[in-house]
Structure formats: structure tokens, C-alpha cells
Amino acid sequence: MTTLQNLIPMVVETTNRGERSFDIYSRLLKDRIIFIGTPIDDQIANVVMAQLLYLEGEDPEKDISIYINSPGGSVYAGLAIYDTMQYVRPRVSTICLGLAASMAAVLLGGGNKGMRYSLPNTRVLIHQPSAGFSGQATDIQIHAQEILRVRRRLDEILAEHTGKPIEVINHDSERDFFMSAAEARDYGLIDEIIEGHGRVGTNGSGVAEPAARTVNGGSAGPTTDGGSAATRN
User: Fold this and answer.
1) pLDDT value of residue 180
2) Residue 38: per-residue pLDDT
3) Which of 49, 78, 178, 225 sits at 20 to 30 Å (Cα–Cα) from 60?
């Protein structure tokens, strides 16, 4: 059976000490590039946090780039990555390609101001967190209060990084709120659209599309397994 590990390319470098092989992600890490290309969970968060801390130790003055193509995931895991991005001394640039949905959109907006980018055809989604609970009525009430507190904190983070009033963020994230690259830039989640190396565009398609809403969650709106108390975004 073919596994993901078998599909990761290896890069061979030749030095005066001989040849060394790296998987492609380890090689890019040497250039201070981090990828978030999967749903966000505790395992991914631990890897990204470790990479950020390692690169800070290597050179606290040199910028770090995080490339994001993710449907979102665990709020707590995502907040751990976000806090580490804010904690490390190097400036952190975020680049969206493909999709930055839910918690991934928060990470996209959490890059250093002026260093948040998107490719032309990416999509960005914000919405309120969701979770599934079971158990005694009091326990369900406790978890419901927690998810409301988490939503409030996510709204505060997005308001801080976009410059929009928290009431606007709260209204827009009430349901799935999709944005094109140009709309995400106008919203304040990114700063520039990159059309190629050294080419910064004003919008993705030449014309900004209206933001799309869906009333019921689609594939980008994660759910939890029955009985799980994990909050997802």
C-alpha cells in the first residue's frame, strides 16, 4: 500500500563531505519555510511549534515563512500555533495557496502585518467554531459556555489583525463566509496578492467576486465524532 511518506520527494545535496538526502519539507525548513497542508490537530501543531522554536534558535533575526493550505481543524491546536507565531522573535510571514479555512484563516491573518500574502486563486473561509457534546446536562452546559468563550476570543483575534470591529467579525462568521483572494485582502486578512515571484497583483481575477455564504456547513466546516468534546473551527 502506498503511504503519504512514500510520496514525499527526497532531495539529495552534494557537499565536500559527500551526499546528504532530505525529505522535501526538511530541506525547505533549512530555508525557513514551514508548511501547514493538512487539517490542524495536536500532532500538526506540535510539529509546527517545534519548527518555529527551532528556527528562532537558529537565527532570531531572520524571517520565517508559513505556507498554508488547510481546511482548519482543532481550535486549541490552532491557538497553540498562533500563540507560538506571536511568541517567537523572528517575523512570521504567512502565504495562502489553495484554501485557508476556519482556524487556518486565523493563522493566515496572524502573520506579521505587511507580510501576509495569497496566490490569486485561493479561497479563505471564516465561520464560528463547532463541536459535538454528549453527557449530563450540566456538562453540556459547561462545554456550551466554553465554546462561546472560544468564539469570542477568535473574534477578538480576527478583529485585531483585520482592523474590523468585533461586531462585524461576529456577524460575518455567524455562517460560512467565503472570500476570494481580493476579498480577503480588502477584509484585512492578507496584505498582498502574489501573482508570481516579484509580481504583486491588485486582485486575483481582475474583478472582485461577491463574498459567498452557505447556511449549512460544507466540507470546510469540520465536525467532531460523537461524544467528543473537541472544539473545532
Assistant:
1) 98
2) 96
3) 78
Q: What is the pLDDT of residues 90-120, one digit of tens each?
A: 999 999 999 999 999 999 999 999 999 999 9
- Return the HEC string of the chain: CCCHHHHCCEEEEEECCEEEEEEHHHHHHHCCEEEECCCECHHHHHHHHHHHHHHHHHCCCCCEEEEEEECCEEHHHHHHHHHHHHHCCCCEEEEEEEEEECHHHHHHHCCCCCCEEECCCCEEEECCCECCCCCCHHHHHHHHHHHHHHHHHHHHHHHHHHCCCHHHHHHHCCCEEEEEHHHHHHHCCCCEEEEECCEEECCCCCCCCCCEEECCCCCCCCCCCCCCCCCEC
Cell of residue 35, nine digits: 508548511
Domain range for 121: 32-214
At 40, is the pLDDT very low, low, confident or very high (cuts 50, 70, 90)?
A: very high
Number of domains in the chain: 1
Is residue 167 domain-resident? yes
Residue 19 lies in a domain: no
Q: Cell digits for 106? A: 486565523
Residue 97's CATH number = 3.90.226.10
Residues 125 and 101: beta-carbon distance below 8 Å: yes
pLDDT grade for 15, boundaries at 50, 70 and 90: confident
Residue 72 forms part of a structural domain = yes
Residues annotated as part of the active site: 102, 127
Asked if the structure places residue 21 within a domain, the reply is no
